[in-house]
Design a protein that fits this description.
The structure holds two protein chains of two kinds. Helix content of chain A is about 25%, strand content about 35%. Chain A is of the alpha+beta class. Chain A has one domain: hypothetical protein PF0899 fold. In chain A, strands 2-1-6 form a three-stranded mixed sheet, with helices on one face. In chain A, helix 2 links the parallel strand 1 and strand 2. In chain A, helix 1 crosses helix 2. The longest helix of chain A has 18 residues. Chain B is of the alpha/beta class. Chain B has two domains: about 50 residues, no CATH class; about 200 residues, Rossmann fold. In chain B, about 30% of the residues lie in helices and about 25% in strands. Chain B has a seven-stranded parallel sheet, with helices on both faces. In chain B, helix 1 packs parallel to helix 4. Chain B starts with 14 loop residues before the first strand and ends with a helix. The chains are: A alpha+beta, B alpha/beta. Strand 6 of chain A pairs antiparallel with strand 5 of chain B, so a sheet runs across the interface.
């Protein structure tokens, strides 16, 4: 539901970058979005061009990398990916685990052209 | 030597010039080989072939909500410096956040100085219910936004906190998804889940229930009228958040309220 806010926050950061690097054009942005970040990929893809239209940036490509939920077991120290979101170790079934990934909501990189 | 500027560095991209191609006009620098003059051009008409600038990869690795996070960190530092414990209450609309706060303020009145910031899309209905219970209350109307953000809280803190405030409740906009993503500067989130919502809510909305410091199951007075398995609900909550504190209460009958109040007092 807040994908438009997220799209606007991404674009704001790209605008700030462009403002501090005169002459550069952002061609592509790559985001990392965790499975439990609360962000729906298709809604973000829908919102992004709308937010872009009212920004100072030109059309640019959006790439979204989905990050699965992974945990590290605090008992057996195994690292495993988690299906759905039941937090337990795939190796020993302990629920004494630490989340390593899956909540990401970040700008990983950009492709720019310099004048 | 370059005949344009006299420099000694061939292949250095330094000659800005402008030209038209494909209907658009632009100015740029490009690299050319001075010594062997690899690219053909006719100086009289100034037409030549050249390479467009390559895309450059820039690593960012920044949180999308870093601006919100920055303001939230400032809120947190200020609240901490004043010794105020802050709880961000998040749940679906209608799960009993305001009812729990009404009863909580009544029970803490004269004992612990509280303050409340409450967010709703429209109206000050919640603030009206919470006022007159011994705590300052600020209503934020978020208009079309589905969550509170750190900037709104920063502004509200200025008019809400009193010199003696010890416990601050932020009642977020009723929504199980979006508010979980926005740090407000709270010490922790408390998720509410009312019995009529069904015991499987934590599985369906793990992003909130996983990040909550405590989960409160509300409206337990309705359990006898529902197909409700409270043990299954506890299992689901702990499935997404092993070890989290789970409290069960009814604001209406006050069953379980003493445990909630005792828990709040342990935080101070």
């Amino acid at each position: 539901m807040h994908e438009l806010s997220i799209a606007e926050a991404v674009i704001k950061q790209l605008e700030n970058y462009a403002a501090s690097h005169p002459g550069c054009t952002v061609k592509k942005v790559t985001l990392e979005v965790g499975v439990v970040s609360g962000i729906d990929r298709s809604a973000l893809e829908f919102a992004f061009p709308l937010a872009l239209e009212v920004s100072s940036l030109k059309k640019l490509e959006l790439e979204i990398i989905k990050v699965p939920v992974s945990v590290e077991c605090l008992d057996c120290h195994a690292k495993s990916e988690v299906e759905k979101f039941m937090l337990k170790c795939a190796a020993c079934s302990s629920t004494h685990v630490k989340i390593c990934s899956g909540r990401e909501l970040k700008i990983k990189s950009m492709e720019i052209e310099e004048a | 030597m370059c005949k344009n500027c006299g420099c000694d560095a061939p292949k250095t991209p330094h000659h800005a010039h402008s030209h038209e191609h494909g209907g658009h006009y632009h100015v740029h620098e490009h690299q050319h080989e001075h010594a062997v003059h690899e690219h053909p051009h006719v100086h009289g008409e100034h037409q030549h072939e050249h390479q467009h600038p390559e895309s450059v990869h820039v690593d960012m690795e920044v949180n999308i909500l870093s601006e919100n996070d920055r303001i939230a960190a400032a809120n947190r530092a200020m609240l901490k410096s004043r010794g105020i414990v802050t709880i961000n209450l998040i749940s679906s609309p209608g799960s009993g956040k305001t009812a729990l706060l009404e009863k909580t303020l009544d029970m803490l009145k004269g004992d612990i100085p509280c303050a409340v910031i409450v967010g709703d899309q429209r109206s000050d209905e919640d603030a009206k219910r919470l006022r007159g219970r011994g705590a300052p209350v600020t209503q934020i109307e978020t208009d079309d936004s589905c969550h509170l953000n750190a900037e709104q809280i920063a502004l509200a803190l200025e008019i809400t906190l009193q010199p003696d405030t010890k416990l601050l409740f932020i009642e977020n906009v009723g929504n199980l998804v979006c508010p979980a993503a926005f740090d407000l500067g709270e010490d922790f989130k408390v998720a509410l889940l009312s019995s009529p919502e069904g015991e499987d809510k934590p599985l369906k909305y793990p992003s909130l229930f996983n990040t909550a410091g405590a989960v409160v199951i509300t409206k337990i007075d309705l359990c006898p009228y529902l197909d409700w398995d409270i043990e299954k609900c506890r299992q689901y909550i702990r499935g997404v958040n092993p070890g989290v504190l789970v409290l069960e209460l009814s604001s209406r009958t006050e069953k379980g309220m003493n445990s909630w109040i005792s828990y709040l007092k342990t935080l101070l």
